[in-house]
Amino acid sequence: MSSEIAQRDENTVATTEPTNQLPAPTPTEGSTALMAWAQEAELAYQMAQKLANTSFVPQSLRGKPGDITAAILAGSELGLKPMATLKSIDVIQGTPALRAHAMRAVVQKQGHEIELVESTPERCVMRGRRKGSDTWQTVEWTTARASQLGLLGKGEWKKQPQTMLVARATGELCRLIASDALHGMPYVSEELGGVAHAEIVPQRAPLSVAALTAPAAVPEPAVAASADYSVQVGNGAWDPDADDSVDWQPDTEQ
Length: 254
Prior knowledge:
Strand order of the largest sheet: 3-4-5
Structural class: alpha+beta
Oligomer: single chain
Strand content: 5-15%
Helix content: 40-55%
């Protein structure tokens, strides 16, 4: 009797064991890189949630942790650190774009050369060459050229034509000499949205951990009186202390 029970137990074990079990796939180089990227994205999203409502985030990204995460990841591919990315990338009508000064920085960091030859409110001439090349590429932007494209009637072209000409020349020149360094962001913000970003930032208190992690306080509506520039924050109010440096809202007419 005991031998019969033992035989039945062996049969039971045999029928419950998995059959035709395939070995676990060996991770490929691509899948390993994707998993590492996913972990990086998760960390970036956690960071974005803490920064989303602070004044360190540009208006076009504020309150949008998903977009901030994408910007941080894109900036990482360009060699930018997270906080530098937030001051370098705008989202214009759903398209991420580098600010002109940031695009020049990315290209120059790769060893390519850029020179501003001439800059006036009517004309901008820039030249550049790839690292290791002896050939210079020259780009010229004038108000006449901008007029042909219908740009001079836009707000920032009326107020800051010299800055806008430099921005346009920057985008065109960088695409000519170093399109491979831009990683899918070949246009500057000023080209897509008609916005000019000043390079002078008001002095602020030293950074602290609390400033980076705590939500930003909502500013009291005020009318800019003595500030050199101001930013419209909604309902006709203006914030002279905003980090975004011009009174611009995304332009829907291109």
